[in-house]
Amino acid sequence: MLIDKNTLQKYDVAGPRYTSYPTAPQWSKNVTEDVYTAALKVFGQNDKTLSLYIHIPFCEQLCYFCACNKVIRAKEEKVGDEFLDYLFKEIDMVAKHIQRRKLIRQLHWGGGTPTYLSEEQMKRLFTKIKSVFDIDFNEEIAIEIDPRTVTQHKLKVLRELGFNRISLGVQDFNEKVQDDINRIQPFEQVAEVHQWCRDLKFESINYDLIYGLPYQTKETFKKTVDLVVGLRPDRIALYSFAYVPWLSKPQNKFNLDAIAVHDEKLDIFIQSRENLLAHGYQAIAMDHFALTTDAMAKAFNTGALHRNFMGYTLKPADEFIGLGPSAIGFLEKTYVQNTKILPEYYESITQGHLPVERGKQLNQDDQIRQWVINSLMCQFQIDKQLFFNTFGYEFEDYFLEEGRHIHDCIEDGLINENSQRIQVTALGKIFIRNVCMGFDYYLKDKNGHQRFSRTV
Ligand SMILES: C[S@@+](CC[C@H](N)C(=O)[O-])C[C@H]1O[C@@H](n2cnc3c(N)ncnc32)[C@H](O)[C@@H]1O
Ligand code: SF4
Prior knowledge:
Shape: globular
CATH superfamily of the largest domain: tm_1862 like domain
Structural class: alpha/beta
CATH architecture of the largest domain: Alpha-Beta Horseshoe
Strand order of the largest sheet: 9-10-8-7-6-5-4-1-13
Radius of gyration: 22 Å
Bound molecules: S-adenosylmethionine, iron/sulfur cluster
CATH topology of the largest domain: pyruvate-formate lyase- activating enzyme
Helix content: 25-40%
Number of domains: 2
Number of helices: 17
């Protein structure tokens, strides 16, 4: 696919990833513990199902590129035990407000590195969850693991607990890149962990890769992708390196000259994308790929894909609860985020308070734009009739002011439009964040400041 350099320059701007709308910079302290507990109470009075995310922040070693919320700790049983004491109290508080056993349709342990916990600790956490919630074991029960530290036995324990999906942080196989990002992880190690997961019959294996890391070139990253497709994970998340040194200080260690930007970075992405497509993967929305035989590819093709903070998902639950530091929930049309700082998280729970830091209650316009952005990100289209049926407005009338943006996107070949729908083109899929940005109320008349990483 040929991409015009002017288009590239125009759209290579800082922009959000839209794992939520409104995006995090719009969240405020207006969402307090009281707002959250009121939402939990309402949730307790209805039959809605639950997606539960648990954030376990610890990692044994720092990867310099990492923009996740993590706490680096040498491996020690007591670190996990202390954490679980607080986490269990948070679970109890949440359960007390809901006052009812809810059905979990999606369970996700993320981090940090959830497998920092010992086998015993993971079992205790799972038992604790089951003591207050019901779990539908036919749905997504997923965990993020670090292939450098997980053992075969730990994977076996996870499988026995009921985890059916696993995600491995792979990033890049090149030694020079690995050295620079402080993450030595030979191919053989990943291949071995991959085989263990296959032997244990995890239903789906995902790899995280990052393009745009220091010292990556088209040649080196092609080798990484070649090795990856040889192992045939079911899904691949191909993330654009979020270079945000003002937020993630260790990124300042990187030699700026060694980081590919603009068209060089885009070249790496396009080459990798084509390599994946040529090897039986389908592009799933923005930066995700799945084997064409995988359920996610099928869901994408039938318009049944959804997206939340945990990435793309097949069957979303009705409401979301996040537990642990920095975890995000969304219930009663309100985003709620816990404090990111571990000592503050502990302190709040010690005081008997839910550790809510901020959030956002969606007004009607937020809900409408959230729907439109989700539709673009997951289905690559906006069905105008469906929009009307859902909100009672004609799409053209509601988005009169966005006419200019729609026109520009058509001119630049990012979308096509007719009376029934807006359809994103192959080029538009690469710049999907930019297409969405035009529908973001909070970016109106602004150029997207350096709050976000670049869109490609
Ligand atoms: C919580 S980690 C995955 C589990 C485990 N901690 C590991 O690294 O193996 C989540 C993923 O976020 C991605 N990630 C972290 N920092 C990033 C950044 N600055 N830009 C793009 N992706 C990033 C990485 O691909 C990483 O695998
Ligand atoms: S990438 Fe994973 S292992 Fe590395 S610091 Fe981030 S969360 Fe920890």
